[in-house]
Write a structure and sequence with these properties.
The chain contains five helices and 19 strands. Helix 3 packs parallel to helix 4 (163-176). The radius of gyration is 33 Å and the shape is elongated. It has 330 residues and is of the alpha+beta class. The protein has two domains: 45-183, Beta Barrel (OB fold (Dihydrolipoamide Acetyltransferase, E2P)); 201-329, Immunoglobulin-like (Sandwich), CATH 2.60.40.
């Protein structure tokens, strides 16, 4: 009996010495370590691409926090707007589109820092490494954009760790006249403003200036309109227009009679007259953020090949222009 008790005691003690509580360090499973793609330098931090800005800036999240990111050493052409005073730079849209293609939304990127963490606008300053497809190593986005001619080199002193590589990439693009070096003959070439007298906008395009956005959205040519019949050799041009007040505090005047038209081949000016439209633009004041829309009817020559529509007069400080051809009106 004593031998049996001794055996059970020894067995119990043995089992107790083997048992470890489940929440102790000894039983914790080893943490899995994310595999960094080949080619990514040591110390680069993972991030997610979330949105786009232009050819050298986009949005990311790092540890779940959102940031705007500016590519070090890389200077892409500036994006513009429909404001005639803020035209696009040559190759800006192409550069922005290239970034979207190389950096898909939701892609895991790897960010390499240099001396400065952020610029004066709070944007991260980084070299960005993009994982390669299949077995290909990661590539540096900054260098790729320079080498393909979508950007020019920018000295971001004191952030110079990759300057030699970036300058070499730019030199190669220059030599091949790739991208902006061939199309634009160099970086930061302003495109001609669209919507000015010597470069009128196409029908359908909105133009902005002086806190107003105006659009000739559509056009048609008719032989009569309600009770209005044009004189012999003329037709009626019906414009579908919108006027939007972009100013945050002040009112803006609008008037259908601020629209006019000119035959630019024969140097002949047309003026709007009586408007029998069922939805005329009319006239009045727009409060901040308000939009007026309607139709403007102008009698023009039937044989006019190119008609330049103008929105000007007292309605706006700078006249806005669109180019209309009879073919556009059907």
């Amino acid at each position: 009996m004593r031998r049996l008790f001794g055996f059970v005691s020894l067995l119990t003690i043995g089992l107790l010495t083997q048992w470890v509580p489940a929440n102790t360090h000894a039983s914790a499973a080893p943490r899995s370590i994310d595999q960094v793609p080949a080619g990514v330098p040591a110390g680069a931090k993972a991030a997610k691409a979330t949105d786009y800005i232009d050819g050298d800036k986009f949005k990311v999240t790092v540890d779940g926090k959102p940031f705007d990111l500016n590519l070090l050493g890389t200077d892409a052409p500036e994006m513009g707007s429909n404001d005639i005073f803020k035209p696009f730079e040559c190759y800006a849209q192409e550069a922005a589109d290239r970034v979207k293609k190389l950096v898909k939304h939701g892609t895991t990127l790897y960010l390499e820092s240099d001396k400065d963490d952020q610029d004066d606008k709070g944007r991260l300053l980084r070299y960005v490494w993009v994982p390669g497809k299949g077995t290909k190593p990661a590539f540096m986005l900054n260098s790729r954009l320079l080498g393909e001619g979508y950007a020019s080199f920018k000295d971001d002193d004191p952030n110079t760790n990759h300057n030699d590589e970036l300058k070499k990439a730019e030199a190669g693009a220059k030599a091949r006249r790739a991208g902006l070096w061939g199309t634009c003959s160099g970086p930061h070439v302003k495109l001609k403003a669209v919507g000015v007298a010597d470069n009128p906008a196409p029908v359908g395009r909105a133009i902005a200036a002086n806190d107003e956005e105006v659009a000739v959205a559509g056009v048609s040519f008719v032989d009569s309109y309600d009770f209005l019949v044009p004189t012999a050799g003329n037709v009626l041009m019906v414009l579908d227009v919108t006027v939007h007040n972009q100013n945050a505090t002040d009112k803006r005047d609008f008037n259908e009679f601020c629209f006019g038209a000119r035959d630019i081949d024969n140097n002949f000016t047309f003026r709007p007259g009586l408007n029998p439209s069922g939805t005329p633009l009319h006239s009045g004041e727009l409060n901040p953020g308000e939009t007026a829309q309607g139709q403007v009817v102008i009698e023009v020559r039937a044989n006019s090949q190119r008609i330049r529509v103008e929105y000007g007069g007292y309605c706006t400080r700078d006249s806005l222009y669109w180019l209309v051809t009879p073919q556009q009106g059907g």
